[in-house]
Amino acid sequence: MQGILGRKVGMTQLLTESGIVVPVTIIEAGPCYVTQVKTAEKDGYTAIQLGLGETKQKRLTKGQIGHLRRRNANLPMLRTLREFRLKNVADYSVGQKILADIFSAGERVDVHGTSKGRGFQGGVKRHGFHGGPRTHGQSDRLRAPGASSSGTTPGRIYKGKRMAGHMGDARVTVLNLRVELVDPERNLLAVRGAVPGSKGGLVLITEARKQSIEFNRAKGK
Predict the structure, then answer these.
(1) How far apart are the C-alpha atoms of 79 and 53, rounded to whole Å?
(2) pLDDT value at position 173?
(3) Which pLDDT does position 202 carry in this prediction?
(4) pTM of structure
């Protein structure tokens, strides 16, 4: 199993053995519980469902409580449930605990999260438009988008035109991040670089799908 749920704690920096300071993001990864095992015979595909974040029963709906209790009476009440597709689920059972030690320092991972919501923003902030000139009599057009189309041909605005609108609050994946530190006692992972979302945001950490050439050579692939 090369996947786990976690919460973003924040960013800091680490000093490597070679004396280089690298920026890292601390993620509280797990502990997660297997809440459901899906098989091809029963569900049409193979996957396991993981749960994160123990909470009080009164904070869950009756459907959520029934889903957890029906699988295993000893499962804690878990706030967040997510699926991970696997080719072989024979080694997993409901109630099994998944910890941060499934990863090790030096491995590469992909981190999936939800970016910070920015609300309704203009073209300058949303798409990086330069805006109009700051002189020649323009007092109120500094951040205006300018013309969006022509009148005669095509006489309309094409779909996908970059304009003002809702920004952020979207699923973002950062690929091929290096695991710099694993602390299984405190369920912490430190990955090099930034990951999407705000502090406390939910992230999914999975084995990297696009390994770098250097990493594959080190593994003998």
Answers:
(1) 5
(2) 94
(3) 93
(4) 0.81
Q: What angle do CA 18, 177, 192 make, to 5 degrees?
A: 45
Residues of the chain with pLDDT > 70: what percent? 95
Residue whose pair of structure tokens reads 């594959």 in the numeric block: 216
Q: In whole angstroms, what is the distance from residue 4 CA to residue 112 CA?
A: 11
DSSP 1-64: --EEEEEEEEEEEEE-TTS-EEEEEEEEE--EEEEEEE-HHHHSS-EEEEEEEE--GGGS-HHH
pLDDT value of position 212: 62
Would you say 125 and 176 are in contact if contact means Cβ atoms under 8 Å apart? no
Which residues are CB-contacts of 196 (< 8 A; sequence separation ≥ 6)? 111, 112, 113, 114, 115, 116, 172, 173, 174, 203
Q: For residue 66, which phi and psi values (nearest 5 degrees)?
A: -65, -40
How is residue 198 written in tokens?
């705000």
Element (H, E) at 216: helix 213-218
Report the C-alpha gap between 145 and 127 in whole angstroms. 10
Q: What's the mean pLDDT in 124-128?
A: 93
Structural tokens at position 52? 């994160």
Q: How far apart are the C-alpha atoms of 159 and 134, rounded to whole Å? A: 30
Contacts within 8 Å (CB) and 24+ apart, 14-20: 14/180, 14/181, 14/190, 16/180
pLDDT of residue 216: 56
